[in-house]
Each structure stands twice: as structure tokens, then as C-alpha cells.
Amino acid sequence: MITTALEAAGILHQHLQGSVLFANSKKPTGRLYLYQRLANSRAEDVVINSLTLNRATIQEGVLNVNVYVPNLRLSFDGAFDESQPDINRLVELATLTNEALKETWSAAGDYVFEVQQDNLFRDENNQHFINFRVIVKALNIPIH
Questions:
Q1: Which of 46, 83, 88, 115 has the greatest number of beta carbons closer than 10 A?
Q2: Distance CA 8, CA 53 (A)
Q3: How far apart are CA 130 and CA 55, in angstroms?
Q4: Where residue 84 sits, what CATH number does that domain have?
């Protein structure tokens, strides 16, 4: 039983912490965070946040998993540019994250996480991030 979006994000955090994403030799160089990463971080951080979670008998909601990768530092005519995404690294981490987020059921079968979609975005810190939109469904039946 999951009651709040905070609980759902916490469960997904635990799952990702023990998953292939952080066990593989190509794991992110940064850390796994709930809701907020360190300001001005240049590491390959993973951040989980929640968008919605209803209170129906079968709860449905949406979580985000954002995987950050610093841009490439390229030299051009003696100047440096950091506007270009590191596509190779983004693909590596997207593959690991997708594997970690494949349809995941709890041992008791009372909740499931599944990837709805993913997309690439640019942030303000010379980085790009892959956003995984994750659907969560959970039984919301009180146990007496």
C-alpha cells in the first residue's frame, strides 16, 4: 500500500539504489537524490520527484526520474564551448536507467512502476538530462 507521492518516490529511490543503474561499472558518477540535487552540481546525478498520486482504491500517479550528464567541453578556434550534449554518455545512462525502470512490481504485488516515456532536456548549468516519466499504480486498501 502506498498512500502519498512522497512514499512512492521513496520506494522508487530504494529500488534504484539497489538496481543495475548503480551496480554497473558504467554507473553515474554522481548520487541518487529525492527531489533536489546539490546546487551547481557537475556530477551525473539522478533525481526522483513526484508529480501526482491520486487517492483511489487503485492509486495512479506519475514520478519523474532525471539523469543529468555534463555537456562536452569542446575547443573551437581557441575558445571553449560547453553547449553540446555528451550523447554517448547520455545513451549509456539512458540504457541503464531504462533497464532499472523496466516494469517493476513489489514482492507482494501491491504496486508497480513502469516507464511511460523519456525525453532529453537541457538545463541552465551546461548539462542535459534524460527525463523518465514513470507511472506508478498501487492498491490503496487499508489493512485493519
A1: 46
A2: 8
A3: 29
A4: 3.30.2000
